[in-house]
Write a structure and sequence with these properties.
endopeptidase fold (from Nostoc punctiforme); 12% helix; 4 helices; 2 domains; single chain; mainly beta; six-stranded antiparallel beta barrel; globular; 19 strands
Length: 248
């Protein structure tokens, strides 16, 4: 088994070893992973955080030894808590480090990181971090302030406060405890929505006063009720409520 960490600010995990294949998810600076397959210019990796697998170009990664990988496993991870920070490279240039990046691995890359890493570890902390992504554009498979999807928004808001969510809405819906009524929910809980075929395909984070932050076209705030998400711009419901889950 081989191991590695992400070398750049953000890299794409793709369905096949082709730069034009579909985007599965992204991995941020310093993220550790296992290498499970390889081709001439590509590695297939499994991310430690959520076990998502995909193909990444080799020159975007840094291979590390098993001992170094185990050291990472034994080190509590902290994450960049700012929209954009910087790591200082040995040659004097700067590496952009995005919200949610793994700053603990910067020394392995020969960098020094000086950004904010303190977490709140509370439901209010989840809400506060979700709001940092407000107006970020929708990107299927994205997890950054410059492109993110609905499940990615929830995963990152929870991750930044020390909690692990799965990568897709349907897998996230299997976590936590279901609530019988929307009135039982609190800001920071997750609301899940299904399509016309009854499949869960959307998720958002509940806010105070019957609102929700979610990613639909962009990260936005809309109203939430027993029916689902109401979009005041179109004056209609955009998503049908399926279940609310309490994770924290």
């Amino acid at each position: 088994m081989q191991y590695g960490i992400v070398l750049l600010s953000v890299v794409a995990l793709r369905a096949t070893q082709d730069s034009e294949s579909s985007l599965i998810t992204m991995a941020l600076y310093g993220a550790p992973f296992k290498i499970i397959d390889q081709r001439k210019f590509w590695y297939k990796i499994r991310l430690d955080f959520d076990a998502t697998e995909g193909w990444v170009e080799k020159n975007q990664l840094l291979e590390i030894s098993e001992n170094t990988y185990q050291d990472i496993q034994n080190t509590p991870q902290t994450y960049c808590q700012e929209l954009t920070a910087f790591a200082n490279k040995a040659d004097g240039s700067l590496m952009p480090v995005l919200l949610g990046s793994y700053n603990q691995q910067s020394h392995l890359l020969g960098h020094s990181f000086e950004g904010q890493t303190t977490t709140n570890s509370s439901k209010q902390g989840v809400v506060n971090r979700a709001l940092l992504y407000l107006n970020a554009p929708y990107l299927k498979g994205g997890i950054s302030p410059f492109g993110i999807d609905a499940a990615g928004l929830c995963q990152m808001a929870y991750k930044l406060n020390g909690y692990a969510l799965s990568r897709t809405p349907i897998d996230q819906s299997k976590q936590g405890e279901p609530l019988s009524f929307i009135e039982e929910s609190e800001a920071g809980d997750l609301a899940f929505f299904d399509n016309s075929e009854g499949m869960i395909d959307h998720v958002g984070i509940i806010l105070p006063d019957n609102h929700i932050i979610h990613c639909h076209g962009q990260v936005r705030i809309d109203r939430l009720d027993h029916t689902g998400i109401f979009n005041p711009q179109t004056n209609q419901y955009s998503h049908s409520l399926r279940v609310i889950k309490k994770v924290i």
